[in-house]
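Input (structure):
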């Protein structure tokens, strides 16, 4: 098997890449970094490229059996008009360029990233994959992102869209942004803390990719979130307990909106995502509880 990965030098990409190499897969990966920051392997071909632009990198994707699309600028910053445009372009243009490169050879599979933000803010409602999309910036971006990936079906490519929750793990992901504040005793709920906060451990993302590779009938959108739903207040309390730090520094909603702009609204949004399709199709989570997922990440 030959695989191709966009965003291959990122937090999730590096974990998936490592797993594929361990299985004996020949992998080509691309990202903006001049070289892969962690991995070097005789079965890894790394290509530095701006995937929002057509280029020679597309040849590596053309006839790959498995194509994994993880490219996308981080959303964890103050949003401006230019940064929102960069977030969109890094996802949509990359996906369009990738799909245009695919040959549609028999059995070719595209696994493309999306996000649980697809649904917008929905309060306490449980969100299965057949729930309609929201209408905020992130929801509209996810709709456009998935549509760009699903265009590959016209070539006969099997397409899966992974709607990620907040990704947990060591050496990166959301926890790398949270832990410093908690270690200084400044951790606590955001706003009311009542908003639902979907999460998934990075190792379960890797296992889900394996699951999709083996389950040839899998296609369409899947919520990649842990089976235990928690609110932001519960998440904060659990993380603080494991770090043996206080959990009383509540950040007011007005402060989030003031200092983070539209991204502050994302942190206050409530998405009670459930992994309905994964569970129904027989996937088992290695980390089914938040506490176990956080313990594993912090221990590592």
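Output (sequence):
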């Amino acid at each position: 098997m030959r695989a191709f990965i966009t965003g291959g030098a990122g937090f999730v990409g590096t974990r998936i890449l490592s797993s594929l190499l361990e299985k004996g897969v020949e992998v080509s990966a691309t990202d903006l970094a001049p070289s892969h920051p962690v991995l070097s392997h005789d079965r890894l071909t790394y290509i530095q490229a701006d995937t929002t632009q057509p280029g020679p990198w597309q040849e590596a994707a053309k006839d790959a059996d498995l194509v994994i699309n993880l490219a996308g600028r981080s959303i964890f910053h103050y949003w401006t008009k230019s940064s929102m445009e960069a977030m969109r372009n890094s996802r949509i243009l990359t996906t369009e360029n990738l799909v245009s490169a695919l040959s549609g050879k028999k059995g070719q599979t595209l696994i493309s990233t999306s996000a649980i933000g697809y649904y917008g803010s929905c309060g306490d409602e449980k969100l299965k994959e057949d729930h309609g999309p929201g209408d905020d910036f992130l929801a509209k971006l996810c709709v456009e992102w998935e549509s760009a990936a699903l265009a590959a079906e016209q070539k006969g490519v099997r397409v899966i869209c992974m709607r990620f929750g907040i990704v947990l793990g060591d050496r990166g992901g959301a926890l790398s942004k949270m832990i410093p504040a908690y270690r200084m005793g400044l951790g606590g709920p955001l706003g009311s803390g009542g908003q639902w906060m979907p999460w998934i451990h990075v190792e379960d993302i890797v296992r889900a990719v394996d699951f999709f590779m083996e389950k040839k009938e899998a296609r369409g959108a899947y919520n990649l979130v842990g089976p235990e739903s928690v609110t932001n207040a519960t998440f904060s309390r659990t993380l603080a307990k494991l770090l043996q730090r206080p959990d009383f520094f509540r950040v007011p909603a007005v402060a989030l909106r003031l200092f983070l702009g539209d991204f502050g609204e994302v942190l206050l949004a409530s998405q009670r995502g459930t992994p309905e399709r994964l569970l129904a199709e027989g996937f088992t989570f290695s980390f089914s509880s938040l506490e176990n997922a956080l313990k594993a990440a912090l221990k590592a």
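Notes: The chain has a mean pLDDT of 96. The first helix runs from residue 11 to 22.
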